[in-house]
From TrEMBL:
Residues 40-49 have a biased composition (Polar residues). This is Der GTPase-activating protein YihI. Interacts with Der. The keyword Nuclease does not apply. One of its GO terms (molecular function) is GTPase activator activity. Belongs to the YihI family. The lineage of its organism: Bacteria, Pseudomonadati, Pseudomonadota, Gammaproteobacteria, Alteromonadales. One of its GO terms (biological process) is ribosome biogenesis. Residues 50-61 have a biased composition (Basic and acidic residues). It comes from Paraglaciecola psychrophila 170. Residues 1-74 are annotated as: Disordered.
Length: 169
């Protein structure tokens, strides 16, 4: 046997237990991955797998709601709000009392030019007014002259057409 040198270290007495902080040789340390692995730029298999992951899209992504291409003004927003009326008489009264329509009609009577949107609003409102008047039986038609009044106007026209000099002898 070989000779052992003297040392101040105390040798092991009994069987040592493995402490919890000592790793077994079979367990390897798991390292943090920093960055992408080498060669991912040219690896097609990984890019194909990533495309499959994108199939499960978030349902909130994107909207199917149509978007107006023109900016709406305050007047247009108020015009788009539709008010439901209980009867045609209420709707007709609301149209007749509309201050915007009244000012636009006054401007048209004066001869001022109005915007295209305002003209469209006037046309739609007047068309609806006409429909409501027909529904309710309200007509502003000028009464057609009766046959008797036509005869009277014809007789008067004949009387005016008479030349007095024809009757003188």
């Amino acid at each position: 046997m070989a000779r052992q040198k003297k040392s101040r270290k105390v040798g092991k007495i009994g069987i040592s237990k493995t402490p919890s902080n000592v790793r077994k040789p079979s367990e390897k340390r798991v390292r943090k991955h920093l960055g992408k692995p080498a060669g991912t730029r040219n690896n097609e298999a990984l890019t194909v797998n990533q495309d499959h992951k994108k199939v499960n899209k978030d349902p909130r992504h994107g909207s199917k709601k149509p978007v107006s291409l023109f900016a709406e003004t305050k007047e247009q927003k108020s015009a788009t709000k539709k008010v439901k009326y209980f009867s045609p008489t209420q709707e007709l009264a609301a149209i007749e009392q509309d201050p915007r329509l009244a000012t636009l009609l006054d401007n048209i009577e004066i001869g001022k030019k109005i915007a295209r949107e305002d003209q469209h609003f006037v046309d739609l409102t007047l068309a609806r007014h006409k429909v409501l008047c027909e529904m309710l039986g309200l007509t502003d038609d000028i009464e057609e002259p009766d046959e008797q009044s036509e005869r009277q106007t014809d007789l008067y026209a004949q009387f005016e057409a008479i030349n007095i000099n024809d009757f003188k002898e």
